[in-house]
Write the structure tokens for this entry.
Amino acid sequence: MSESCHLVIFTLDDQRYALHLSAVDRTVRMVEITPLPKAPGIVLGVISVNGMIVPVLDIRRRFALPERKTGLGDHLVIARTAKRTVALAVNGVHEVIERPAGEIIPPEAVLPGMEHVHGVVKLEDGMVFIHDLDGFLSLEEEQVLDAAMEQERHV
């Protein structure tokens, strides 16, 4: 029997992206994001999730998409990396799909050198890029974020 993958599909502008369901804690409507001084540019700020301070990552910036102010109709995907819980600001969360693991195309087969992508899956109406959350932040960004979060805890 073939192993299958469950993917949470979300959008940025008109492009669909995905995360492995196992990495996603939940999705919530957009809330006010508090700026985090001295955080890397990829961090929009922080939110409180059940009393825990969670950094909000700007995946639009990581993928060189045009900047856009977040709105009340937007959503946050609360997900876990190997190091921390993060929130991703997205336009919308649409569905959870299941696909055989063998249908996930390695990123090198689509575009050599593609960063921050775990794989690509073809759907009937287009392709979906599956994010690699563990490789999303560089080591330097992780260290700067750790320092900014630590400083925030002591304020």
